[in-house]
Model the fold of this input.
Amino acid sequence: MFLTEKVKSVFFEERELCGTRVIKNRLEQRGTLISRKRVARLLNEAGLVRKTKRKFQVTTDSKHNHFVAPNLLQRQFNPAEPNRVWAGDITYIPTRNGWLYLATVMDLYSRKVVGWSMDTSMKATLVNDALTMALWRRKPDKGLIWHSDQGSQYCSKSHRAILKDHGIQQSMSRKGNCWDNATSESFFSTIKGQLVELNNFADQTEASAAIFEYIEVFYNNIRAHSANGYRAPAEFEAMQNDTRISKKSVL
Done:
């Protein structure tokens, strides 16, 4: 009974969106050893079923004559330090009152969403605002690699001016190759499946409030991520920072 309550606690903490692997790893982090098979049995006995997600398609406007940057990332999605490689993309959020557009900036070190912007139009200001938020929050050193697809917003003069002003290296996926920006694609798949597909937003205001809460409260600070050893992005960054401080103190 006590073990069942622990399993249920993680399940609801993860908003009924996690599978047995996440629950097993989360419990082991907290000192409880358990197999995935037993987790599955306890979930089944408690009548708990993971919310499922559907596949979706992202459309990119790459039919333009603007400058296109080379692919500097080359699918190297695991930088050794924060603020070395960021990745961004745009997606569409449906509401009963029309589309809402979401642009994000992710630090590939921890998979943390460090910048985002939402609007009812998909102009260059959408991605500029997301990147500006990330720059204000993180204040990266010059040399940061900024990776995106070949969308016209990322190729715009205003966007490239921001990159030049901050000494940022621009990198772009090959045309039509979603795997070159797999981390951003994965995040959008996650937010679509775990939030958008489970709601029928009345309008853009309702959708933007839900997305804000999902990113800033749940995704960055609670949701376990396999790339981080099943820790939330903020938790992973804090742990790695503590480790670096400890090593410096020893030296």
